[in-house]
Write a structure and sequence with these properties.
This protein is α+β, with helices and mostly antiparallel strands and 278 residues long. The chain has 2 domains: 149 residues, Ribosomal Protein S5, domain 2 (2-Layer Sandwich); 120 residues, GHMP kinase, C-terminal domain (Alpha-Beta Plaits), CATH 3.30.70. The protein has 8 helices and 10 strands. Helix 1 links the parallel strand 3 and strand 4. The longest helix has 17 residues. The chain starts with a strand and ends with a strand. 45% of the residues are buried.
Amino acid sequence: MQINEHARAKVNLCLHVTGQRKDGYHLLDSIVVFADTGDLISVVSSDEFSLTIKGPFADDLSAGADNLVLQAAKQFTKYCNGAAITLTKNLPVASGIGGGSADAAATMRAMSCMTGAPIPCDNGLSLGADVPVCLQSISCRMEGVGDVITPLADFPNFPAILVCPKTGVATASVFTAIDNKQNTPISDMPVTDLTPRNIGEYLCRQRNDLESPSANINKEISACLDLIKQQGAFLARMSGSGATCFGLFETMHKAETAARTIAKSQPDWWVKPCMLGN
């Protein structure tokens, strides 16, 4: 029996760097939502572990032992002999929207379903800071090193576009370039009247502390944000450590129109209209 799991794109609507531990791990505070677009993981029981990658971004990934998908699957070795895994890679690689982490999380869900085994007790944190939140794949506030996750009930959905200039940014380089690693956390969200307008205004008062250092490394990020703003987005911001940027719009029609305009002017970029939320 084949088990399919969607690995939805993760978007940091805001991301504050609030400190750094002695072991080097950074402390974060972020509102995370998921898009209705992403990769696909398919798993079939097998006598050994194997990974096949297909899709528009397949050539950008190795199917070797260092792939997070295989690492996630092999956490279930005591429950099965192996699994034949197919990853349909629809999201650009190393783009700040949790592609690898979402793939690993989807693999863990699929392996748990196939074997009947529980998800590892660390929820995939050993594989990466974004894996636990991607495992839940719902709107959350993520704090600490990715280990403190608070689901956000009734968080609104937002019509949006995702835009990636396809020139990546190394996450380690971005964190090294941060001038101040002791920033204020995100402010508390409204507890009533969680309309898209109110939450949108709240999000505009937050920030992504990685945006400026990332834009200094990759000059296309600023151009990307400018184009999104020109299309009428009420919020344009970078996700994660980049280089993907997003724009929030009042209607899906406006988001789709903006996506078509940007894709026409920048045919080499990855542009996707989507809905962000639960």
